[in-house]
């Protein structure tokens, strides 16, 4: 096993949506579609040893939402589906534009990375876990599509949560750098995906 230099172009590009897109996924990523049914517009990966997960999702382009507000729009949408919409249950800490010069997906009209937190409970348990959410958003108005990439990074696992047992064994969790590399390497191979 050769050592990868930090910051190097480690990792192979992984086909997404049957090869219509591809990106470099972080190490230890397990394709959840092999375990359970995933909607056609999503690709879901979980870290083999932590509770971290990554979702690549094709959603309808929201033309009424300005580019600089779009990441927050989707973040609040996720908070809604996570039932984390009460006051204080979610917070946006930063939204930054991603320079197109650093992206493989040059077709996007703009790209953004949002970082925030949500308090979510798993499987309708009472116990709530604080999850740091990194959200990458690529806007493709010409395809009426927003590509949304979500990195769920649970911070404090409540001891009452079913995930508590696995939290003690933190083996090389994914980092924001892993996520940024995924965003930067996202590549479109077949626009018919959006048709």
From TrEMBL:
GO CC annotation, single: nucleus
Gene Ontology terms describing biological process: heart contraction; protein import into nucleus; regulation of membrane depolarization
Highest taxon in the source lineage: Eukaryota
Keyword Iron belongs to the record: no
The entry's keywords: Guanine-nucleotide releasing factor, Protein transport, Transport
InterPro entries linked to this entry: Mog1, Mog1/PsbP_a/b/a-sand
GO molecular function, one term: guanyl-nucleotide exchange factor activity
Pfam family, any one: Mog1
Homology family: Belongs to the MOG1 family.
Protein name as catalogued: Ran guanine nucleotide release factor
């Amino acid at each position: 096993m050769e050592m990868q230099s930090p910051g190097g172009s480690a990792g192979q590009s992984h086909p997404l949506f049957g090869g219509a897109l591809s990106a470099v996924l972080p190490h230890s990523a397990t394709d959840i579609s092999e375990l359970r049914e995933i909607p056609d517009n999503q690709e879901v990966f979980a870290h083999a040893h932590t509770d971290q997960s990554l979702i690549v999702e094709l959603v309808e382009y929201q033309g009424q939402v300005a580019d600089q507000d779009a990441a927050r729009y989707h973040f609040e949408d996720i908070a809604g589906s996570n039932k984390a919409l009460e006051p204080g249950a979610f917070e946006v800490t930063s939204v930054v534009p991603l320079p197109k010069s650093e992206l493989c997906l040059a077709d996007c009209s703009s790209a953004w990375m949002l970082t925030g937190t949500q308090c979510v409970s798993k499987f309708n348990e009472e116990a709530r876990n604080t999850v740091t959410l990194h959200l990458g958003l690529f806007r493709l108005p010409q395809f009426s599509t927003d590509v949304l990439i979500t990195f769920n990074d649970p911070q404090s696992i409540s001891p009452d949560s079913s995930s508590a047992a696995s939290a003690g064994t933190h083996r090389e969790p994914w980092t924001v750098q892993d996520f940024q590399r995924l965003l930067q390497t996202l590549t479109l191979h077949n626009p018919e995906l959006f048709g």
